[in-house]
Amino acid sequence: ELQEVAEGRDLASMEQAVQQLLVGVGEDPAREGLIDTPRRWPKAWLDMTRGYRQSAKSGAPIVAAGSDGLVIVRDITFAALSEATLLPFHGRCHIAYVPRRGVVLGLSKLARVTKCLAARLQTQQQFTQRLVAAVQEEVHALGVAAVVQASAHMCMVARGVEKHASTTLTTAARGAWAADAVARAE
């Protein structure tokens, strides 16, 4: 599996870059505990950014016998990397949509789309917007909304900005919810 991830990638230059980073922070890449790090990191990094090599389209059958009622999937967990610092943030998202003519997506597919889109470099705001756009494109819903709650933005923790646990909340909406503040609030 790791060979598939590494295929077509220049792992040797990635390993050299990690060695340079270690030296740059005053470490010895040859010391015990770090010897294998330059070899492990590129594979881990490629795995954390696998979303670039995956399609956000579910490929799943769409159910046309659903209802016209609201579909909500809550507490989908994700982990992502900040494009500004390359440091991680993680959390949960909630996705809601109003089907068009009863066309719904298998509920587990929303989690798959979330995981795929999260595995790319971006801000939390961009992730939220892309998630709504992907669901809208997939099911052509009358309206789509998402709420993304992320904690432990390591870029803030590393700079000492965030001393206590906090949550950053972002929202996005399209279609029927984009202009209806009451519906979005619900």
Automatic annotation (TrEMBL):
UniProt-listed Pfam families: GTP_cyclohydroI
GO BP annotations, alphabetical order: tetrahydrobiopterin biosynthetic process; tetrahydrofolate biosynthetic process
Keyword Endoplasmic reticulum appears in the UniProt entry: no
Metabolic or biological pathway: Cofactor biosynthesis; 7,8-dihydroneopterin triphosphate biosynthesis; 7,8-dihydroneopterin triphosphate from GTP: step 1/1
The name this protein goes by in its record: GTP cyclohydrolase 1
Residue stretches making up the GTP cyclohydrolase I domain: 14-186
Family of the protein in this entry: Belongs to the GTP cyclohydrolase I family.
Group of enzyme by EC: hydrolase
Catalytic activity field: GTP + H2O = 7,8-dihydroneopterin 3'-triphosphate + formate + H(+)
EC number(s) per entry: 3.5.4.16
Entry keywords, A to Z: Hydrolase
GO molecular function: GTP binding; GTP cyclohydrolase I activity; zinc ion binding
GO cellular component terms, semicolon-separated: cytoplasm
Alphabetized Gene3D superfamilies for the sequence: 1.10.286.10, 3.30.1130.10
